[in-house]
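Subject: Predicted fold for Cleavage and polyadenylation specificity factor subunit 5, 152 residues

User T.R. writes:
Posting the sequence so we have a shared reference for the thread.
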Amino acid sequence: PSGELHPGEGEIEGCKRILTECLSPENGDGAIEWEVADILSNWYRPNFEISRYPYCPAHITKPKEHTIVMLIQLPEFGTFAVPKNYKLVAAPLFELYESSGTYGYTIASLPLVLSRFTFVPVNSEPTPPSTADSPAAIEPPAAVEAETVTAE
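User M.O. replies:
I've generated the structure tokens; pasting them so everyone works from the same file.
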């Protein structure tokens, strides 16, 4: 979701407020405590045009719009309450790559921006190997206890 900051409001506090207003249940049950992990990118709109740039052009002293894309660390459990006029889409990163015509430049740049992180998958229950297919049993990998995202 997107929104505007209130006067005097910080970027992280504003992001948490906007996420709570847009995606938290109205009754407050199961509300998520949002954790901003990192700022992924900054986009600038120098004029009232469609184009955005990942940098502020040198001849612009005050851009008309500044968009910040943040990485939000989600808890293991939580509830999203998506308004009827919103559409929540779970798209894999490989689908976003080089698809600016479908998703726009900001969203299509996410695979490139996220490439500086190392993602470690979390397996809560390792699956036993199939002994019917091979005579030698293969030990399953040890389960990772917590999800880790490391910035390089």
